Each structure stands twice: as C-alpha cells, then as structure tokens.
Amino acid sequence: MTVETKPTTTIRFHRILLTGAAGGVGTQLRPRLKAYCDVLRVSDVVESLPAAGEGEERFVVNLADKAAVFKMVEGCDTILHLGGVSVEKTWEEILQGNIVGLVNLYEAARQYGVKRIIFASSNHVVGFYRQDQVINSRDPPKPDGFYGLSKAFGEDLAQLYWDKHGIETVSVRIGSIFPKPTDRRMLATWMSYDDAERLFMAAMTAPLVGHSIIFGMSDNKTVFWDNTNAKHIGYRPKDSSDVFRDEVEAKFQKLDLNDVATRYQGAAFTRTGPFFQDDGLGGKKA
Amino acid sequence: MTVETKPTTTIRFHRILLTGAAGGVGTQLRPRLKAYCDVLRVSDVVESLPAAGEGEERFVVNLADKAAVFKMVEGCDTILHLGGVSVEKTWEEILQGNIVGLVNLYEAARQYGVKRIIFASSNHVVGFYRQDQVINSRDPPKPDGFYGLSKAFGEDLAQLYWDKHGIETVSVRIGSIFPKPTDRRMLATWMSYDDAERLFMAAMTAPLVGHSIIFGMSDNKTVFWDNTNAKHIGYRPKDSSDVFRDEVEAKFQKLDLNDVATRYQGAAFTRTGPFFQDDGLGGKKA
Amino acid sequence: MTVETKPTTTIRFHRILLTGAAGGVGTQLRPRLKAYCDVLRVSDVVESLPAAGEGEERFVVNLADKAAVFKMVEGCDTILHLGGVSVEKTWEEILQGNIVGLVNLYEAARQYGVKRIIFASSNHVVGFYRQDQVINSRDPPKPDGFYGLSKAFGEDLAQLYWDKHGIETVSVRIGSIFPKPTDRRMLATWMSYDDAERLFMAAMTAPLVGHSIIFGMSDNKTVFWDNTNAKHIGYRPKDSSDVFRDEVEAKFQKLDLNDVATRYQGAAFTRTGPFFQDDGLGGKKA
Amino acid sequence: MTVETKPTTTIRFHRILLTGAAGGVGTQLRPRLKAYCDVLRVSDVVESLPAAGEGEERFVVNLADKAAVFKMVEGCDTILHLGGVSVEKTWEEILQGNIVGLVNLYEAARQYGVKRIIFASSNHVVGFYRQDQVINSRDPPKPDGFYGLSKAFGEDLAQLYWDKHGIETVSVRIGSIFPKPTDRRMLATWMSYDDAERLFMAAMTAPLVGHSIIFGMSDNKTVFWDNTNAKHIGYRPKDSSDVFRDEVEAKFQKLDLNDVATRYQGAAFTRTGPFFQDDGLGGKKA
Amino acid sequence: MTVETKPTTTIRFHRILLTGAAGGVGTQLRPRLKAYCDVLRVSDVVESLPAAGEGEERFVVNLADKAAVFKMVEGCDTILHLGGVSVEKTWEEILQGNIVGLVNLYEAARQYGVKRIIFASSNHVVGFYRQDQVINSRDPPKPDGFYGLSKAFGEDLAQLYWDKHGIETVSVRIGSIFPKPTDRRMLATWMSYDDAERLFMAAMTAPLVGHSIIFGMSDNKTVFWDNTNAKHIGYRPKDSSDVFRDEVEAKFQKLDLNDVATRYQGAAFTRTGPFFQDDGLGGKKA
Amino acid sequence: MTVETKPTTTIRFHRILLTGAAGGVGTQLRPRLKAYCDVLRVSDVVESLPAAGEGEERFVVNLADKAAVFKMVEGCDTILHLGGVSVEKTWEEILQGNIVGLVNLYEAARQYGVKRIIFASSNHVVGFYRQDQVINSRDPPKPDGFYGLSKAFGEDLAQLYWDKHGIETVSVRIGSIFPKPTDRRMLATWMSYDDAERLFMAAMTAPLVGHSIIFGMSDNKTVFWDNTNAKHIGYRPKDSSDVFRDEVEAKFQKLDLNDVATRYQGAAFTRTGPFFQDDGLGGKKA
To answer: Is the pLDDT of residue F276 over 60?
Structure first.
C-alpha cells in the first residue's frame, strides 16, 4: 500500500504504538504513520496482522491479557488506540476488549510513563440523540448499546487518568471511516482516510490536550456535531461527503421516519438487535 | 432496630428488592422499607446478612454470578440497588461488583420486566471538581478513582436501558450517609438516614423519571451540588448538617489547601492512593 | 364570599379590570381584588356574571367585539386578564377568544395608556416537555394544542407590546388553580387561591417587569418548572400540594407510563383528542 | 425565465406545492422547483399568477378559505409555503393570511398526510434583538410587529404539529431574498436566489428535521445569526453579500444610531409605523 | 455597642484585620468580629476611628500609602476589606482609594503570606442590568460609574492573585447594608447586619474558596441575583426585607419607569450625575 | 513603507486618531490607515515617532497627561487606541499608561463627542485559561498579570461608557500581531498585519457595535477562542498561521507540559516573573 498525501506535520516520535492495526482503519493508517516515527509498533488480536515491514515491530496481543499489554506498551512514546471491539457485540466480548483491555492499556501507560493516548471512541457514545439535533462534547452521553457504553467508559477512564495521573488523551468520537459514505446518515458522519490521518496527527502533536473530546468527521455539509470545544486541537478537514451525495441519495430516496435507524444518530445500533436477547436464565418478560 | 419516622408516602409495592442490605446504609434502610411493601427481599454478598424477618426474603448473592442475580431479581417490582463495592478498591474488585454485577442486574431487570431501579451512584463520579465549584447533573463526569469510574459506568448503563429498553432509573449520587458529618467536607455532602429514606422513596414513587440523576444530600448550608434538574422527583430534605457544624469545625479548624483532599469534592479518593500501584509487570516510570 | 387572608400589599390602584370574572379562578379572585383598589371592574362573556357589588363595575363583553373591549378597558389602571377560553376547544373558539380577543385587549390598553397587564398564560405553552424535565422560562415553547398555542401567541404579543410600545406584562403560566390537587401531576402544578392572589398582586406591583414570564405554582415538593428568571417579581408561595399527597396518591397508585398524559407536562391536553378531527373537507389520510 | 444553476439534489418528489408563487421569491423559485418534481403545483391569492406551464398545476386560493386550501393541498408530497402576507400590514390582513390561513394549511396537511412543510418564517420573529447581538434559534422570540408575531405563531404551530401529529417542518427565518443587498443591514441578512434554492431543497430532503428553525442568509461576512443548531439540515451557502459591499456602503456611509432601524435587527419594522394607529374607538392616550 | 447574636462559627483566628472600620458597616461589624479572634486590628483613613478597646489594635491608614498599608497588614491571618471609597466619587478619589489602594493591600498580603481576603465588592459592578433581570456571578460586568468600575477591577485583581499567587478571595457584591430598606429597590438589595456577619464569617471560614463571587443580600422576597454559584460558601440568610415592605411601599407607591433609577439595578448610580462633568479642558460636545 | 493590499472598505473618515503609532503594530497600521481618512493623526509617547507625512498630524503625548490627551482627541471622528503599555511591566507603569491614561482618553472622547473607539485589549485578559480550553467573550476574565488586569479594566470602562454615555467600543483581544508566528502557541494566537487591518476597519465601520469584544487572530487551524458573539462585526480573516507551522514545529518539537507557559493561554505572562517581587517593605513571606 502506498500513501500519496504528504505528512501533515513534521513532528516526529521515536516509537508510536498502533493498536487494532489489522482492522479497516488500522490497515489504512499503518503506512501513513511511518512518516511520523522511527519505529512503528503495530498490534492486533488476530494473527492475520501482516508481518512487520522495515521500521516496524509486530505484536499479536489480546488486550485482556494484562502482561501482554504491558509488553506491547513498553518503550512507546504515544499510542493510537484503535484496538478492541469496534462494533456492537455481546456484552462479554465488549467487556474483555473494551473495558478490561482498556484498563490494562492505561495502567501500562501509567506505569511506563506514556504521556498521551489517542483513543478511538465512537459516535455511539451519543447514539440516542436524534438526527435533527446538533450536539457538542459536553452534552451527556446517550450510548446506544454495549459498544457505545464501553466507549463512554473509555472516555471517563481517560478523564480519570488525566485528572489523577496527568496522562493526556484525545478521545475521538469517530463517525464513519470508510472509502466513501454508503447511506444517508454517513453524509453527516463520514470521515475520509486522509482526514482521519489529519485528525489523529493533530491530536498526537497539539501542545496541550488534557482530556479532550472531538468528533471525527470530514468537512461534510450535513452535520450532527459541533466541534467548537475541540478547536484547540487544530484539526481542519479537507474532504467532504458531498461529492458522494448524488450517488448516495439515488440509492436511498425514501427513508422511514419511524425506523429508529432514521431517527437517531446511532442508526441501526439503536435497534434492540441480537445482543439483548433473553438468555434462558430469566422467565417471561411481564 | 425500630424506625420512628412515619412513612413518607402511602404508595405501596408488592415486592421491593434491597441489595447491599448488610451494609451501613442498607442496614438502616431495611426496617424502613418494610412500611412500603408486602415483601421485602434483601440481599448481600456476605453471609452476615441478618436472617429474614416477617415479610422478608433473604438472598446471599455475588453480583458477578449472573444466574444468582436472575433468581434474586425474579418477581420484584422495583429495586433499590445499594449493592456492589461502595468504596475505592482494586480494579478487579470494582470490575466484578460494580460493572459485571450491574450488567447482570439490569439484564435481569430487563428480562423479568422490572420497571424502575434506584441506583446508588456516588459523588465520586464527579470527585475531581473543586470544592469551590457548584455543579449540576449535566456537568461531565470527573471520576476520582476506579470506584467513581464504575459509578459513571452505571449511570451510562442506566441511560442506555432507558433509551433502549424503557427501564427507568434514578441515579442517586450519594454524598455521605452516616449518623453525622465527621469532617469539614461532610458539612456539604452529608445526608441523614431520614433524608435518605425520603429521597429513595421519592425516587421510587415519582410518576415519571426516565433516567434522572440527583445528588443525595440533606438541606445543608454548605453545598457543592445544584439539584435543579431533579426537582421533578419531589425530594425535599428536612435535616441539615449544620447542627453538627460547631462540633466538626472544632476538630478541623485548619485545613491544608494544598492537600487534594481539601481541594477536590472527592476528598481523599482523589489521592493516588494504594489502588494505583506499580504491579511488577511494568518497568520504571519515565 | 368572604376572604380571610390579609392583603399581600398595601399598594392600591384606582381601578383594576378583572376579565374572566365569572370563571373558576375569577370568582375566587374577585372579592380578594377589592382590597387593592377603589373600583373593581369585572367582566366576562357570560350573563351569569354576578351583579356588581359596592365598588364594582360589571361588563358583559365578548372579547372578539373590539368596540366592547375598548369600552371595557377605558379608565383602568391595570388589567388582570383571566378572560378568553381557558381549556382546549375548537380552533375557531380559541381564535376568537384568545387571539382576536387578545389583540383587541392590547390595542385598547395601548390606546388608553394602560401601563401593565397580568396575562393568564398557561403551562400548556410548554405541555410537550416531559414530566421528568425541569424547564425554565427561556426554553422554547412546545404547546400541546390550540389552547397552548394561543397562549404562546399571547406571550409573544406581550413581548411585542413591551419592546415596541412600552406596555408591561407579566405572563403567568398557570399550573392548576383549584381547591386542591386531584391527580398525581397536580402535585407539581397546583397553585392555591391564596398563592394565586400572592402571585398576581406581586406581578401587579413589582417596580419593573418589562415582559416577564413566571410559572404559577405553589411551594410544591414535586416541581417541573424553575422560576429563577422571575425572582425579581417577588412572588413567594406559602402553600404546598404536599398536604394532599397521601389523598392523591391513594387514588392514583399506578400510572401508565405509555400514556402521553403521564409522560408529558401538559397531561391529557397532549392527547390528539376531539379537537383534531377529520372534518369532511379532506380525504383519507395517507 | 431560465434557470442556469444545476439542481442541488437528485432527490425527486411527485408533486410539490409552492404557495405564494406570484411573489418576488416565489417567481424566482418556480422554475427552479420543476427540476425536483414530476408536477409542480403553484398557488397564490392573486389572479396575476402566471398560467400553468408544462408539468404545472395552478391554483388561485385565498388561504383564509379553508375548503380551497384543502383542495390545494390534496395530493401533494411536500409544501414550500411562501404564501400569506410577507410584510407588515394591518392586523386584520395578517390575521387572515398568516394565522387563519396557516392553520388551514396545517390542518389540510394533517388530514391528507403531507409529511413535511417548509415554512417561510422571518427574521422579524426576532426583530427586536439589537444589531450588535448574535442570536441563535433557541433565543426567545422578540417580534417587531404583527407580521413578525404571525411568523412566531407559525413556528409554534409547526412545533405543535410535529409534537402532536408527527408532521415535520423546517421554519426558515428568511433574511432578505433580493437580487442584491440594498442597504447596510442587508449585508448581514441577504440571501441570494441560488442560496435560497439550496436552503429550501436541503430542508425538503434532509432525512429527519422534526421541527427545525434555520436563519436564511448567504455566506455573508457580517452576521447576526448563529445557525449551529441547524447544521443537520445540510445547508451550505455559496454566495456572499460582500461582493456588493462597496456599492452599498457608498450609499450609506453614515447611519443614525438613535434610529431604531439602525439599532435593531428588524430595522424599519421596529418603528411604530402606520399599523399601530389610534383607531377612533379609543380615547386619548394618557 | 453590644452585640446580641451568638457567633455564627466557632472557628477562631489569631488576628483579623478589618479595614474601613469607621464606616457604617465597619462600625457594626467591629464588635461582632471580636468573637472570632484573639486580636482585632481595625483601620480606617479617618482619625475619628474610635480608640482601640481590649483585644484591639488601631491603625489610621491612607490605602494609597503603600508603606502604611504594609505595616497594617503585617501579622494578620485574614482581612475583611471594607476600606476605600464606598460610593460614587470623582475618578481621582476612586483611583487612589480603590485601585492604587487595593493593589497595595494585595501586594502586602502576598508578601506577608496572608491566605484569604474578604473583599467588599458591590452590586454596582453590575448596575446596568435591568431590575427585571435575574443575573448570576458569571454574567459579564456592567458597572454603573467609577465606583462600580473600581470594584470590577478589584474582582479581576482578586482572580489574578488566586490564579497566580494562590491567595484566596471572596468578593462580596454587597447590596444595601443598612438598618432597614428605605426604598423599593432595597426590598431586593437589602442585607441586615446579622446576615452580613453570617456572610462574612462564612466566607472567612469556608474550607476552599479560590476566588468566589457572591451577592450580599438577605433572604428577600424580591430578588435580582442568583447565588447558585456561591452555595459552597455556606451562607444562608435569616432576615428578610419583607417585614419592612408595607412601610416602604407606602412611601413609594408610584415609580417612574422612565427614570433610569427605576429601570436599572444600580438605581441612582446609573444617572450621569455630577462625576461626569465637562471639566473645562475639553470643548463643546458635538 | 508601502502598502500593497487594497482598502478593505470604501467608508472614509475625516480624521482618525491612531495612538501608539510608533509601536510595532502602530508602525504597520499607520500607512494603511491613510487610505481611510482625510487626516491621520498619529501619536505616541516617544519622540522617535516619525515625522508627519502628507495628510498626517503628529502628537507626542504621555497618556497620563490629561490636558495633552484632550488636545490629542479634539477634532477626531474615531480612535484606534493602540497606545499605552503593551507588555507586562511594573504596576506603576501599567497604572499610568493603561488605567489613568485610558480614563483620560475616554473622558476626552466623551467631552468632544467622539462616537467610537477601537480599543486594543489583549488575550492576557484571559491568560489563565488553559490551552486545551476554547473560550468565548462572555467567559469571565482571568488576567495573567498587571498588563492583562489593566486590559480587563479597559473593557469594563468601555462597557461603562457605552451603557452610560453611548460611546461605542470594540475591544479587540489581540493575540500576537507579528510578521510571523515564532512559537507553538502563536500558531493559535497569530494575526497577520493584513488581517489586523481587516479587523480594525471592520470594527471601525460596522453599523452598530455598542461594546463588543472580539478576539484578534487570523484564520488559524489551532484555535483557543470562539468569536461567534462577534460575528456582527463582519471580520473575516484571510491569512493563516499554518503556512508557518512546519518552521515553528521544527524549532519546538518538545514542550514541557508542567511549564505554565505551555499550560495556559497567556504563556510566559503567567509566570510569576520579575514584576511581583518582594519590595523590601514587607517581611518574609510565610
């Protein structure tokens, strides 16, 4: 994979840790991050994580394995944490990957003196706001499932580690990082890979961030989120979902306003779905 | 134990579940709750939980045991959840009692059709606000440790179960429920047992609460928290820490402003304390 | 009818106009207002309006009759406007009584130099806020029917006459003025006759009100509305719905949360009800 | 009239109703709307409304005539309502066109199942804010005359029909839609015809709008209004009043700050003007 | 002068400095403060300052005299600063007493290690808010003259010394401390001597205040100011202007709304008055 | 010095007064201002102020000299006040230049009928906000030294002269006007000379400003300040610090987060520095 955009900053790190490097976003970010560091350490839970290239180190790590996480974190200057579960799953999976795993990561960061973490939070932290509302980072969480709940937990954890231990975090409430928007809602939530690189690098290099929350989106015409509170980070998107508008609207001319997926920002995640099943332990719901 | 205050409402339930019934607050609330229900089911993790009296049912349950939690919840109309860990502890203890255990409780409530839960949250959700700030329930969380973090998780979970499943919760950010305030900060955070009863019963019987957050304190002269957002619950305290002011101030005439315990609302919980130790896995902190 | 409370102020007017004097609230206020003026002019649309007593003048007036309204207003120092339609009705009735009639009243006030009007607005201006929300006077209107809509119109009209013509208004968003609360919601919205007198007289005599909006309620324990913005008016209630709580709760132990009348502040007014019928002009709703 | 801009969206409707089609804005919008629908139904109160072209239907309708309004609405998918009175007039004219007429329109929409209305509201809803204030859509109304008052009524009506009947509205507080700005204030309030098309079509096609309020202006350098709350609609202006700045400023170098038309956003509408005359019914103003 | 109220706190200081001790408020506070300290140091600019009693030290000091101020401050634990000019005066007098003098005081406090100052600020910091507005301590200053301006300066100075040097201040925006309210506005602004003592001692003894701003008023029915932000100080008034309402209203039945003294919170201070005279240096005002 | 940008407005004044004309910013603005007036009066305290060119008048004035200030102001239409002390200095210097001098200026403006002043305030009014906070003009002042304190005083003075005397001011909280940004913080605070001209002229010619506060910065990617409240002024920057980003970041790759100069917006001004020394008058700090 070749990367054609030029680096968005000249600031360099010795070693950056990229978790979730085998995922959709991680795969895209991996070659880009090389421009900003001497050593790129990549990790993921899956063995399919491609082998280490030049200037790379490769770790296959289950985040719930504390000792492994500590080894993975040792010696890193900063962390771009895309790892863990990135969609709605069973509570048990979410618990291990996004709660137990995240505490392991922050504890390792604290004990090894890592100064800043870029945390891939999610718009699903606020998925139960309506699509006709424009919200900002101080509006209270309204998670739309176990996944969103785990990301709300992550943000609170980040706040704690800043207030108590002085470790900085930028929590990026990622909208939809994909090659292009594929439904009406993504016209608001889409972020291009280039803009993602811009945002993550701005977050990594801004002089002071404490714990800051920013919504990850491109310069879209349709907007659910007001990033005024995060302007100190210096992220300015250059792409827009609007070049895909006609294509998307052609496919979804009509929407059902009574479908919660049309009504709420979290879309299909707000459906009760398969992860809240009766599990045989309980009886009949009254 | 006899209770002398008269019931604060005539509304009655068939079966109330009181968790954490062997704790300091639970022990006080147990005899009071009998006035409001036909059957009081009490539970705790410890075997020292006193035997069931007339009109009582007794369950010894580890909240992390999902099947046991389901049995405990079955047949209850409403739950006053004081159970779980109620002070700062190791992450592992907090995780089991307050995160895994709470999901078990809400899942049981969802599957058995329990309509409302009164959740003992804590002021430690916002422990890193300063003592010269007056905050309200919409100000973002600033937890002061694993305990406060788990309570922030609980509030977000409650919000999710309301938005997604229609189960109501009143999250009570309890200040300090003790026989009397014993330090300067408690002049702000203290709540008498009688006021606790008033608050819990108001929360249990208010017509509509969705997910509401209320700070649990008596009518103290010194105040950290603005409960305007929670006035629909109908809680009006009758006691005040001020009758103990002279006694408390006599013991603590001088405070050290440079001690985080004086500076922050969470007091001693904001100290880095014993629960954030290097654990041998890591190396030296840079 | 005798009045036993002592006047709440010693400020006196020469002539007060009380409209809607034959209604439930007007009938109660009529003897009380005598204490504050030389001449009390009472009016209503119905002939059953009791005859003028000593120090009284009686007008039977349809508010939609502009000339009659002008005669009614001539010579008055101030107006307590309870007149017009006070419940949900057909649009045509609301239009005549509360929109056409109100413009007539303000035009008469402007042309005759009346300086201040106390306008009986209604909580139904904000009836579509939920009962678990505490709102204040700056939150945008959410009327629950034609009646609430007409009262929102009245408040905007009052604002216009203040900004443009210097005529002051206190818009009182009346909750429920009745002998006692008779359902669960009224525990929040109830205002006693004595408190109504206190509020109306405070509004009439406060030095400067411009256009102020205040929610009309007693000192109830359960509260939907935050009157902080209106504290300059100097209204302090002395009664509380709480003395009737047991009686009310005994009758309404269980509520249906899925009934909009339980969910919204406007209660039964939020139902689609009989005033939004298909009227034969239209066809079938798609 | 030919239209040279390309359509701003590919979403199409079967039948759009454009009211006020003979007015200044309506005349401009009429040919543009054809690109978005199979049938364009145009209506106005004046007989001078040009004849129906291909793909058009023509209705001459007085909005106060309920039966005529119902016929006009039948069969339409959506409505762009520019009709009614669009400047300050006598109360009687405003009443019939903008209050009685608007209720007729919404009742017809409700009974015929029209899902969304774009309502031409006006900046005169907030005309009494000062020109050195930047306001947003949640600031309370301060109408500057009967016209602005009727538009405030319309917004509240729209809110009601959304909350109660699920009919969506975008209320567009139109600034000044003209070929070019012709005075200093219009440098802030001007909206080009192209931007008007962009705004109306964005409002018509956004997935979910509930009842949203947006200020209608181009991308002007001078701004009175903050549209953050309306960013979900996806309107992004491309024109700017600034290309006309020199021309305008040359004509109005000096302004009288003591003129209410300079001081308030509503400009000349805030003058007491000819529509608040003594009408012979009343006596002398005190 | 004897004092009959019992001390409001048992916390004692070794040496309190009371400046402005010969003024109206200072004279009342002087005997009361003795209950809270071993040594009461009193100071004023006038020689008429009564002689030192037992446990007192007496300093006649011009605040503009830096060396004298340093001597006055040496050895004090805390300062209740009522000194300086307390009404509207010429700029030159205000400058010396309230600006130069205040910097001298804070510099002395900084260099001698005084930890907390209670600063007599004034409602005239916000005198140009209207009497129909209820404001809080975060609303921007709108001073009504040189006096109010100097108090705004003092508050900013206090903020600076907290942020930069860690010296705490409670800025008390005093309403009207007099034996009783003597005009209509004072029904809102009045504070009794007893409540003043309660407020000053609460401010002096609260555990942490940083720089806090509180409005100084009794528990009046009519209110201009919302003290929610200052509830951590623990001030709860027991007196009310309302016992004087009839007496006051009898004297001022009618007010002129066009008089700025009726319209603005600062009352007569908002008049242009004698302290903004043309001074012969300038020419004619255009 | 030649100026190559074209005038930003065609509005012209007869005589503009530019104070501080010999300073860094003044020297740049001087030739630019000529395009907007018949006569440019320049002043400074230093004799090195270059001689008057064609269409210029030159005044050497100490702002603390009231008579001289009056002569300087006579006959001017508007004032761009860059004069006084523009960095942290001793209190005595700040006092004379920025407090005494500013009152002289406003008194002269009042007595000679000058209608509007553009006041060079400073970001040091809010220097103690953190660099990870985005603030707006209504957030309370947190000055970082005597200099910032004097600018806070100036803003309050400007508010007073607007509320009381109708003299308008735009207070420009200038970030960093230099040829280019030279450290990391300036990437947020930098304003180009061209943008400075745009801002000052917009402020001078906007129809109504009352007292408005605006932050002076270019269109930088990194932002500390939200200028939404000032959009009525019509300032739109065209330059950006970002073209210098690589150059700046190369020099300052690593920052010390524990240095207050990194943590706070006021940077080095927040250090206690040389202007808060013990001065021999006092004793040892406790």
So the answer is: yes
